[in-house]
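Typical record was shown:
=====
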Amino acid sequence: MSPFLVMCLLFGLTFGQTASLCAPSEYTVHVEKRECAYCLAINTTICAGFCMTRDSNGKKLLLRSALSQNVCTYKEMFYETALIPGCPPHTVPYYSYPVAVSCKCGKCNTDYSDCVHEKVRTTYCTKPQKFCNV
């Protein structure tokens, strides 16, 4: 194997994480409360994309720390709060959600990320929609 090819391979393995496709992406969240008259469609940004991970086929031969799977997660974010219209006075009509400013590949933090494989389908409303743009 040529020295140039070996250097390219080593560079790719070392810095491949920076070339991943993890970035803020537009997303619409649908929020409903049973007591409220409307469903709120919120346009926001989330972190989405591809991150390099390690193959766990050799998990019996490797240390546990070498088996980490990276996910696309928040590097910088802030929270917005939206008012759900049509709520009666005894109901809290607010919904807070994260807005991604920048993203990174890293371990999934359950404090602010959903780390499960299957997501809950929230791409619909059962009540009339109102829109909220960030």
